[in-house]
Amino acid sequence: MRTTAIVLAAGQGKRMESSVHKQYLLLRDKPVIYYALKAFEDSRIDDIVLVVGKDEQTFCRKEILEKYGFRKIKAIVEGGRERCHSVANGIRAVCWKCDYIFIHDGARPFVNDEIIDRALGEVQRSRACVVGMPVKDTIKISDEMGYVSDTPARALVWQVQTPQVFDRELISEAYEKLLEEEEKILAAGISVTDDAMVVEYFMKIPVKLIQGSYTNIKITTPEDLKIAEILLD
């Protein structure tokens, strides 16, 4: 069995209100992206594909791969216009034998061995699983006028995280179908927001939810970076 982690670091992070992309902001004395890469480097994952922004490959090879001595990074590839294009580029870069693919946001620095091992165990059973946590707050569904239209049972509502993990053939086929039908689904007003949705929509395969961690936060705003500093203690 061979596994590959695709770590996404191509986002611009506009909500961070910084000229530096959020994945390269310093968390303590290291860039945010370092922590996710380090977690996969030290885990049971065999290979890593790092997906970066336009013209950032040389920078990342020198300032990330070489500087911190990551040995499992087998490819650094350029991302695309949207997240889905970046994921597709990452999948296509996996030109070696691989059974399972982990897709992880580089702005989530607190992925750990426990999460990775739990996801690996589940994907071998179900072929598709995503990490997440049950929500703590009551969730309201709004109508177009801003009024409550529904209140789903809290026990059934999860906040989804990454990694999202799939059988390699399954996720490869799903993303190829997405790219082929992209204009069609956009015209229908369908917005693809995560990898599980691609599998659900195109492959009609159920995706298993598994427990991640409430500390597995995504750094999106300046406040998140402050929280991350505290979580490092």
In the CATH scheme, the class would be Alpha Beta
The CATH superfamily label reads: Spore Coat Polysaccharide Biosynthesis Protein SpsA, Chain A
Number of strands: 11
Give the radius of gyration: 18 Å
Main β-sheet description: 7 strands, mixed
**Helix fraction by DSSP (H/I, runs of at least 4):** 25-40%
Instruction: Indicate the proportion of strand residues.
Output: 15-25%
In short:
This protein has 233 residues and is an alpha/beta fold.
Explain this structure.
By secondary structure, the chain is α/β, with parallel strands linked by helices. The protein is 36% helix and 24% strand. It is built from 8 helices and 11 strands. The strands form 3 sheets. Strands 5-4-1-6-10-7-11 form a 7-stranded mixed β-sheet, with helices on both faces. It is globular, with a radius of gyration of 18 Å. The model has no long low-confidence stretch (mean pLDDT 94).
Q: Which descriptors would you attach to this protein?
A:
single chain, 233 residues, Spore Coat Polysaccharide Biosynthesis Protein SpsA, Chain A, 8 helices, 11 strands, 36% helix
Element layout with pairings:
Elements: E1 3-9, E2 26-27, E3 30-31, H1 32-41, E4 47-52, H2 57-68, E5 73-78, H3 83-92, E6 100-105, H4 113-126, E7 128-134, E8 141-142, E9 148-150, E10 158-167, H5 168-180, H6 182-187, H7 195-203, E11 208-211, H8 222-231
Parallel strand pairs: 1-4, 1-6, 4-5, 7-11
Antiparallel strand pairs: 2-3, 6-10, 7-10, 8-9
Helix pairs in contact: 3-5, 5-7
